[in-house]
Amino acid sequence: MADRRPLSTDDRPLPPHPPASASASGGPGRLRRWGLIAAAVVVVAAGSFVVAWSPDSVPSFRAIGNPIVGNGKWAGAVALTELNGRTVAVVAHNNQAQAWDLATGESLGRPFGGDEDQFIDALAVGQMNSRQIVVSGGGGDLAQVWDLTAGKQIGAFVGAGSSISLGQMNGKTIAIAGDGLGRVGVWDLAAGRLPGTLLIGHSRAVYAVALGQLEGKTIAVSGGNDGTVRVWDLTVGKQLGSELTGHTDYVFSVAIGQLDGRTIAVSGSKDGTVRVWDLAARKQLGEPLTGHTSEVRSVAVGRLGGETIAISAGGDDGTVRLWGLGSEPVSSGD
């Protein structure tokens, strides 16, 4: 699909990248029309239906629309953001990333990325100095910072590994990043330095990190090749509670969001599943989400059509899948 318009502003080593034969195609991926609005909207007529989910009920998860299938053979990272009132997915296929308007199925602006031999396997979106930014990583030590609206690189920092997340703490834009030794570092992004202590708890490499808020605290969630998901209080630099277990292989991706008043984490694993966790209750919600035929390399959480959604990238299966996380509507009678 051609670009429609430019964006406007109103231990064990890391897992190897795909072989060099899976080179970048040099163009954006192909996005099939979603039909998302119809899929995500619940019609409420004359009080016949209400959306209800008691704290003890089980949510109903499902796939929405068709997968995003890019020209590249490897889908390595996804991120969700809001831009000018639109829900936008930033999707990496091979060594390039592309922004998409999820409601219309349009590509936004031009693809951006690194060199031909550096596949993108980590993306994070945020704000810095009033700019909408994207940070990308490719499994090495260098992370690149991009102005999303202009599609131009505006900075870089060293020491990121293959997992990155952006957020705010004490008035500063921070990045957290995991490394191959099981540690999570906290970076002052504007200064390009590591100001805080390392978070240590994973027994092996950290492949996934996310920043968020839980009960008034700035938290990080991390996952790694020990198969666990961990929650950290960044103000004191300590782990909150026990690790979350359920995945049967490496945890490659995590994201934090809100679902019916709960703070949740979504995780993707080499075991091919996506799992949803209630962070306050420290437990898994519902059944694992299945459909990918290879490892799940990246996940993100956002809102579309009034519903909480997750999006996942399936690595070697080349697909990006969208999941509705809301509960099914329940009839309340006439």
Gross geometry: globular
Which stretches are poorly predicted, pLDDT < 50 over at least 5 residues? Answer: 1-58, 328-334
Number of H/I helices: 1
Reported for the largest beta sheet, the result is: 5 strands, antiparallel
**What is the rounded distance between the termini?**
46 Å
Look at the helices and sheets and give the structural class. mainly beta
Number of strands: 27
Share of β-strand residues: over 45%
Reading the helices and strands in chain order gives: HEEEEEEEEEEEEEEEEEEEEEEEEEEE
Residue share in helix: under 10%
Give the averaged pLDDT, no decimals. Answer: 75
The gyration radius over C-alpha positions equals 19 Å
Structural notes for this entry:
This protein has 334 residues and is an all-beta fold. Helix content is 1%, strand content 48%. The chain has one helix at residues 36-40, and strands at residues 49-50, 62-63, 68-69, 75-83, 86-93, 96-101, 106-113, 122-128, 131-137, 142-147, 152-158, 163-169, 172-178, 183-188, 199-200, 206-214, 217-224, 229-233, 238-239, 251-259, 262-269, 274-278, 283-289, 298-304, 307-313, 319-324, 330-331. Strands 2, 3, 24, 25 and 26 form a five-stranded antiparallel β-sheet that branches. The chain has a four-stranded antiparallel β-sheet with strand order 4-5-6-7, with no helix packed on it. It has a four-stranded antiparallel β-sheet with strand order 8-9-10-11, with no helix packed on it.
Reconstruct the topology from this structure.
Elements: H1 36-40, E1 49-50, E2 62-63, E3 68-69, E4 75-83, E5 86-93, E6 96-101, E7 106-113, E8 122-128, E9 131-137, E10 142-147, E11 152-158, E12 163-169, E13 172-178, E14 183-188, E15 199-200, E16 206-214, E17 217-224, E18 229-233, E19 238-239, E20 251-259, E21 262-269, E22 274-278, E23 283-289, E24 298-304, E25 307-313, E26 319-324, E27 330-331
